[in-house]
Amino acid sequence: MRTDRIFARLDREPEPPKIVIPRMSRHRVILFSATMAFYVAIVVAVLASSWLVELDWKVMLFRPYEQWPQLHAFLDYFVVLGQRGPTAVMVAAWLGWRSWRQHTLRPLLALGASLLLLNITVGAVKLGLGRLGPHYATQIGSAELFAGGDIFPSGHTANAVVTWGILAYLATTPRARRWLSVISAMVALGVGATTVYLGTHWVSDVLLGWAAGLLILLALPWCEPVIARAEALILMLRAKWRAHGTAAPALPVPAAALPAMFAQRGAGEDDAPVREPVGAASGSRPAGVRGPARPPHAGPRPERPPVPPAASRRPQHSERAPRPAPARPLGG
């Protein structure tokens, strides 16, 4: 995706429009604490091989994909809405347009921060618990933990919650936030149920994936100061890069490098036609011009007869008679 148009839009106005940024309110803190408690309870229930693990096996042995085979073709495509690559591209395209309209990089940076948190938190738990999926289970009734797997929690489910929920988080009007919250919740619920239908995840995987994605969305207001500093840093670096990329001013050319007849020209005579200096035919040089007036290879200067300074160039006519004086009248 090209970013030059986004930066061009940012340069049109000196300040972005006023956007209400969600804060970590008391209500949000309560929801975050409750979701964290649910998250821990799911992990403990799986580690203890409690009733939740029994439910996982019952659903797995039920094989929903065999009970409703007519849904298999459609759900194979629908589950793509939980894959990180395609969903990140679609959501990033939409948020890029939002950044262009709102004159700010915050939507794209918020998406990047949420995906970074998703990769760190969900990836660490996946690798740490190492649970195997239903298709690779080795012992009926076992939690299949620490066996080299990477499905607990469900990455498809958590990714669907984050990538589609970020649209509701960045909504600018209450009505748009409500509608986007409902749509993103339906997509996340559908993706999680689809993974159970296809037999790629346990039920507990999906429950933990929902909780993991919701925790990231609820914790995003804590990341807003970092997002604001990152935006300011990106714009500052871009301004320095543009200033560094501009052409440097032309350095003054020393007079010694110019031809002799142009060394003493004024600043306003650059475009005037060049005139031959007085005395150029006789080999004389203008005043103030350094260097020889004639090239060294021109040979010796020819001798010219001296002209007397007081002599007149007009010939004398000695035989011409003088003009008579006018006659004066006789008085009397």
What does this structure look like?
It contains ten helices and no strands. With 332 residues, the protein is mostly helical. α5 (72-78) crosses α9.
| Largest β sheet strand count, sense and barrel closure | none
Mean pLDDT: 79
Shape, principal axes of CA atoms: elongated
Number of helices: 10
Percentage of residues in strands: under 5%
Query: What proportion of the residues is helical, as a percent range?
Result: 40-55%
Question: Given the helix and strand composition, which structural class is it?
Answer: mainly alpha
Rg from Cα: 45 Å
What is the number of E strands? 0
Give the end-to-end Cα distance, rounded to a whole number of Å: 122 Å
Regions with little confidence, pLDDT below 50 for 5+ residues: 260-272, 279-284
Run of helices and strands: HHHHHHHHHH
